[in-house]
Amino acid sequence: MPDMLVRLYALPDGSRYVARAAERGISVRRLEAWDRASLQRFVSKHFPGSWASEADFAFAQGHPITGFVAINGGEIAGFAVYETSRRGFFGPTGVREDLRGSGVGGLLLIRCLDSMREMGYAYAIIGGVGPAEFYTHVCGATLIEGSDESVYGDLYREMRERGQRLRQA
Fold this sequence. Notes:
By secondary structure, the protein is α+β, with helices and mostly antiparallel strands.
């Protein structure tokens, strides 16, 4: 899964994602210290492998915490973090399956990228992307040539092998 590059100085306006999420009663805010345990539970339940550990690292960065959370009806609906696996990297991010396509993912992405720009970055890297079309559409991300293995190469191989063993069992 390749990496992608985002020009933070040319981010699109995220207001359409704010509006789409609001129509569904979803708000997005920066993570707070008291979100740590509930975010761990959410990520562990809905997403694979080491994502919970990476998301948890956002709380170790000091202030502000390097991530955002989407809330729907008092429950976590999605999350996005940055500066967790590597400096200048966005992710991981995830939205509850029943809310995908609602604009929440786009809003979480834009909020994180805006924050990275405020930190002084001109570019952000999205490592080991799955839905490249999503990132191209939302923030103009482009594939980084020769990054097929990504910085996560060994980790992805281990996760695929573990998944294959579980399916065979």
